[in-house]
Specification:
2Fe-2S, Rieske_2Fe-2S_sf, Rng_hydr_dOase-A, alpha+beta, seven-stranded antiparallel beta sheet, binds fe (ii) ion, 9 helices, 17 strands, Rieske Iron-sulfur Protein, single chain, binds FE2/S2 (inorganic) cluster
Length: 439
């Protein structure tokens, strides 16, 4: 049996573990089991800070974007009331029809197309046809369900679905992240484009590959010839990891063989030069960050991009990429960046597709992880194991499912509904044990 990930020996920031063979992956069933995935929603996703987008995409009040993490549909909008960026569940308070029907748009009046209720850009109910005459109906009690939001000083927008009182504050969840991001001037970049990949694999299949470059010499020939793979390092921080690799500076004193590529990564003298082009980004070293559980922000000189890994089921995950290019960057360099990025991402995508097919067969159970080359994988899998274990203990103690994202009843009507909800819980309990078999 595989060793418990909860006891995995993950080193503190900046320290490298001794290269001792001791750690395994989590059990392979965690990559295929629907019950584990359902449990991960409650244990991880519904209480984690999740990166969504950048504030520069909200130019005027009413600008909104729709998202879906683990099946939870929500939207982020710039409020006309106070100019702040806010998030709401995409659920009408009347009978639960989705209020937003497009992936993006702009409107300071959000009208539900079912019975005509309307909300403003601050989520407040402004119109409920014929309910004005209904005694006891209070518009104030029927605003859209808000979602906790945090916008960093660099404009990175995060949400947290948890409605529990003890939500870990953003600054504590990702301690040190905001200052880490000071190394990059996000204000000098503008939104360029997005694209999406639809993968038949578990979200962890993607993150496994994302959190190491052990596979890069084998699987990314283009990347391998663009920077020094031997310098690649993944350093766990606080629920995020910083990735490093040595880059080429656009140094005029360097020999032709060391002239930088567009990406700015240093090529080895012995390697064949892949481009004569000068580095358009100057001497910025790059800032690549994995954000537990499923997101990444990767900053280069010509552009930065984000990846949202959106789990849909145990074996279905959507990957969404947003690319922001440096203001004033020429179209050719933009195209080169996008082409390069998409080539690497498609290589990773294929790795995930084929790996998951084998995981689905149930032959493989667990494998060794390299203590240094795969310590980013060890780090995030330990977080997954810890959060799942902790939540399982809580649910077992309270003998009920605990969904941190559940919204508490707010008025008399929902209090009545809550009594009926209790009946459902009792029926569910009689129907069987919902606790998943995790290990
Ligand atoms: S569900 Fe939205 S108005 Fe009825
Ligand atoms: Fe990769």
């Amino acid at each position: 049996m595989a060793s418990s990930p909860v006891t995995a020996n993950v080193q503190p920031v900046g320290e490298k573990p001794a290269e001792t063979l001791s750690e395994h992956t989590l059990p392979a069933r965690w990559w295929v089991s629907d019950s584990v995935f359902e449990f991960e929603k409650r244990a991880i996703f519904n209480k984690s800070w999740l990166f969504c987008t950048h504030s520069s995409r909200f130019e005027k009040p009413g600008d909104y974007y729709r998202f879906s993490f683990t099946g939870i549909s929500f939207f982020i909008i710039k409020s006309k009331v106070d100019g702040q960026i806010k998030a709401f569940h995409n659920v009408c308070r009347h009978r639960a029809f989705p209020v937003i029907r497009k992936d993006k748009g702009s409107s300071v009046v959000l009208g539900c197309k079912y019975h005509g209720w309307s909300y403003n850009s601050d989520g407040k109910l402004t119109k409920a046809p014929h309910f004005d005459q209904v005694e006891g109906f209070e518009k104030e009690q029927n605003s859209l369900f808000p979602i906790r939001t945090h916008v960093t000083r660099h404009g990175l927008v995060f949400v947290n679905f948890s409605n529990e009182k003890d939500v870990t504050p953003f600054e504590e969840w990702y301690e040190g992240l905001e200052s880490e991001m000071d190394a990059f001037d996000f204000s000098d970049y503008e939104y360029h484009m997005s694209y999406e990949l639809d993968g038949q694999f578990n979200w962890k299949t993607l993150i496994d590959g994302y959190q190491e470059c052990y596979h890069c010499p084998t699987a990314h020939p283009g990347l391998n010839s663009a920077f020094r793979m031997e310098t690649y390092d993944v350093v766990p921080k606080t629920r995020y990891c910083r990735h490093y690799a040595e880059i080429v500076r656009n140094d005029q004193d360097e020999t032709v063989e060391e002239e930088s590529s567009w990406m700015g990564f240093r090529k080895q003298k012995s390697r064949k030069k892949i481009s004569q082009k000068a580095n358009p980004g100057g001497d910025f070293d790059g800032l690549w960050v994995y954000l537990f559980p499923t997101n990444g922000v990767n900053c280069y000189s010509p552009a930065w991009y984000s990846i949202r890994v959106l789990p849909q089921s145990a074996t279905h995950t959507i990957l969404q990429y947003d690319i922001y290019t440096k203001k004033g960057l020429d179209e050719t360099t933009k195209t080169e960046f996008v082409d390069f990025l998409q080539k690497v991402e498609l290589e990773d995508f294929d790795l995930c597709q084929f790996t998951q097919r084998n995981l689905n067969q149930g032959i493989y159970t667990a494998g060794y992880l390299h203590p240094t080359k795969e310590r980013g994988v060890l780090y995030y899998q330990k977080l997954v194991g810890d959060m799942v274990q902790k939540h399982l203990e809580l649910e077992n103690k309270e003998k009920r499912q605990i969904n941190p994202a559940a919204v508490a009843p707010t008025n008399a009507a929902t209090n009545a509904a809550s009594k009926l909800e209790d009946i459902c819980s009792q029926i569910d309990c009689q129907g069987g044990n919902n606790t998943p078999e995790l290990w």
